[in-house]
Amino acid sequence: MKITGWRTLTTWHHWERPIGDVNGTIESGVTEVPILMLETDEGVTGIGLGGHADIERVFPAIEGEDPRAVTALYDRMLAWVFKSGHAGNTFGAIGVVDMALWDLKAKCAGEPLWRQLGARRGFVPGYASGLDYPLSLDALVALHQRFADRGFSAFKLKGGLDVEQDRERFAAVREVYLRNTPSPVMMLDVNESMNSKQAVRYINRLQETLDLSWIEEPVRRWDAAGHAAIRQQVTCAVATGENLTGIEQYLPLLKEQAVDVLQAGMCWGITHFLRVANLAQAFNLPVSPVGYNANPVAHAAAAVANHLSCEVQDLNFPLGLQVDQRIENGGILLGDEPGLGISIDETAIQSQHDKGSWTIAQGPHVRPERAGLRLTLQSPQREQ
Questions:
Q1: In this structure, are strands 321-323 and 342-344 parallel, antiparallel, or unpaired?
Q2: How far are the Cα atoms of 96, 122, 251 from residue 232, in angstroms, in the given order?
Q3: Which positions carry the signal peptide feature in this UniProt record (predicted)?
């Protein structure tokens, strides 16, 4: 079997609500989902999901190769771009190709990827996370009612601009999950929006009445000293790593003892997650994948001993994707279809007309000018 080419198309995820975090929001609730289809001479196609703008840069590293040599091809792609580096769009393309390669490998074996990777069963525990910052309190509660209906007992909220508003939102959502557990697990994600001193003040103020399990990305992703300072002064765990592009970028965090939960972005692929998990295990730390459409890395999470919990951002899948998994019992139940269990209805995708993007100026992927420069624990609206 040889890799012969690739095709790409874009579908859209309809969140049916505004989404975002303290950095920005997407009021339309519609975002793009890039799809890569890796073709072979035997007619089997591998599917990868995520941004792959640099696919033409990395494809020569795998063209004509046997796709079943996944980890060797992953390292070959890294070597192909070593001089200019593998961050940003390049790492995204490598991750999506890697996802498609693993899909091909498992399809050739006639097994779901979770079984191909050695998992005993295809269930992955998870937590509810709705990219929910722009929602009103009533809409936030209604969203988490739907997650609670699927058996979740852990949840993460977006916040970090107003400590009293966050306290109110956590208290309201916690009530939702009391029907599933007497002690709902609560996490706060502030998306790199703070400096270290502000983060310590903010978290400690929140924890006067709330028992947070972790604070996520309190400061910039590369700030090992800042994460370490926060970790030493708060009682909840510190989680970070989703935006790191390569296991070498985790080393400063580990050397500084700056992190309690290592995270990996699903969009960076299967091999990256597996290597982060192995690195975390060497330091006796748990690993947690950050959510993405169709939860592809859940297959790998099922196969690692130190997986903690997988982020679940929505209960629906993008238009035109049939995904062999169910969200139930507080997690992801992966099916038995070979590969990632993702099939594509191109006719349905081509018939849609809605558009949306993560990268609009007011969206969460654009950093605000004053991020990390605030001294107050309340929003500007409350200060006036």
A1: antiparallel
A2: 36, 37, 18
A3: none
Tokens standing for 92?
A: 């995204």
Which tokens in the block code for residue 363? 């969206």
Q: Among residues 147, 123, 120, which one has the least CA distance to residue 312?
A: 147
- Cα–Cα distance measured from residue 65 to residue 3, given in angstroms and rounded to the nearest whole number: 6
Q: For the chain (length 384 residues), average pLDDT per consecutive 10?
A: 97 95 94 96 97 95 98 98 90 97 98 98 97 97 98 98 96 98 98 95 96 97 97 98 96 97 96 98 97 94 98 96 98 98 94 79 86 74 43
- Domains belonging to the chain, first-starting first, are 3-114 (3.30.390.10), 115-344 (3.20.20.120)
pLDDT in tens, 192-201: 999 999 999 9
For helices 70-80 and 88-109, what crossing angle results, to 10°?
160
Q: What is the pTM of this model?
A: 0.95
The Cα–Cα gap between 293 and 275 comes to 21
| Torsion 203-208-212-214 (CA) sign | positive
Q: Dig out the tokens for 325 from the structure.
A: 């998994």
Element (H, E) at 275: helix 270-282
d(CA 294, CA 48): 10
The alpha-carbon radius of gyration of the chain (Å, integer) is: 20
3-state class (DSSP) for residue 252: helix
First to last CA, the chain: 66
CB atoms within 10 A of CB 56: 10
Q: What is the pLDDT of residue 378?
A: 73
Closest C-alpha to 181, from 138, 139, 213: 213
The rounded Cα 23 to chain-centroid distance in angstroms is 17
In degrees, to the nearest 5, what angle opens at C-alpha 129 toward C-alphas 157 and 369?
A: 55
Burial of 96 (0-12, 13-18, 19+ CB in 10 A): buried
Q: List helix spans (H) across 316-360.
A: 346-351
The C-alpha atoms of residue 174 and residue 186 are separated, in whole angstroms, by 8
CA separation, residue 101 to residues 85, 268, 291, 359 (Å): 22, 13, 20, 27
